[in-house]
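Dear support,

Our group has been running a series of protein-ligand predictions, and this particular one with P1T is the one our PI (initials K.S.) wants archived with full inputs and outputs. We had some confusion internally about which version of the output was final, so please treat the block below as the authoritative record. The input we submitted was:
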Amino acid sequence: MADERASGQGTGGQGFSTRAIHGGQRPDPTTGAVMTPVYLTSTYVQDAPGVHKGYDYSRSINPTRQALEGNVAAIEGGTAGIAFASGLAATHGVLSLLKAGDRVLLGHDVYGGTYRLLDQVMSQQGLTFDVVDTTDLAAVDAALTKPTQLVWFETPTNPLLHVSDIAAVCAKARAAGALAVVDNTFATPYLQTPLALGADIVVHSTTKYLGGHSDVVGGMAVTADDGLAERLRFLQNAIGAVPGPLDCFLVMRGIKTLAVRLERHCDNAEAVADWLGANAHVRQVFYPGRSDHPGHTVAKGQMRRFGGMVSFDLDADLETARRLASETHLFALAESLGGVESLLDHPASMTHGSVPREDRLKHGFTDGLLRLSVGIEDLQDLLGDLEQAFDKAFA
Ligand code: P1T
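Confirmed final output from the archive:
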């Protein structure tokens, strides 16, 4: 029974929302509770030494976490989800599949913390990494001429919303004998499913859209490969960066409404991107849903819609950008993304402060770049908030 829940079996062939609401879950066998209980226990009684009901210690296994793992596996089209205490803990878990001397090829625009983990932690342990623009398939080919064990990329990326061709990059990784890992945090499985396009592992910061309410920190790795699942499960337990059961419950509750939230995020983000595109103070809008986005055609081919994240460059100095960032009211100036409420980020000084400036500038990530996580509030209120902030910043 536990295995069936963990694998999300019994949900195959169903639509996304059905899997999001039911995958990995079943009424509680003891009480019939429809919602998976929060099993706040660290340990489980054994009938005799080593004889138990499949649960021995909560770092290794917990029914609430197991339900979440089966749930995310079901919506990503994987066979196993492995939950971690944060997105970065999931990243660390996946990178721990490698050994000293191995090389990672890292997409050129990724969350600053992912870059920092490789640059300042994993490199101390003997991993090497090179950065490549994964939107440029010739560059990926050239970079893969050196022995590589793992290719890690985001699409759309954080914060520039670059779009990479998942099937093409994964095929190249596989041909080179490297694992292909896609951080699917920005898109979510409602908008795209990288495992179906050839990825070996999908990673999430469940802190973001999956949780959806900015009230929990968590991470997840998903795979459809039994061997990788076993190794990741071992690392989850051996390293021990697991989420608590209440956090797992909150993420699972968030996922139930993922599809309806994402539709509204996308509606609002499309309109905000268009509004910014028509604003004379905006030099460039980064949103894969716009026809002028270089990755628009690829995005259309692999995504259902284009997501709730919009970045933009002001035609102004850094001071004006910082002023604008301080003048919004509904868009809270804060790190993170993917919650129902709108947030505004100044990546160079906040989420991506640990990415070297020269590296950022090389790829068009300027000091003045602003990033919006467009929430699901009423559109006219969001546009009104931006309008008054632009008026003040450019007064
Ligand atoms: O914060 P944590 O749950 O550890 O997730 C790390 C992470 C991984 N991958 C992506 C694409 C992310 O955006 C993040 C976290 N990002 C932010 C906190 C941010 O504001 O961009």
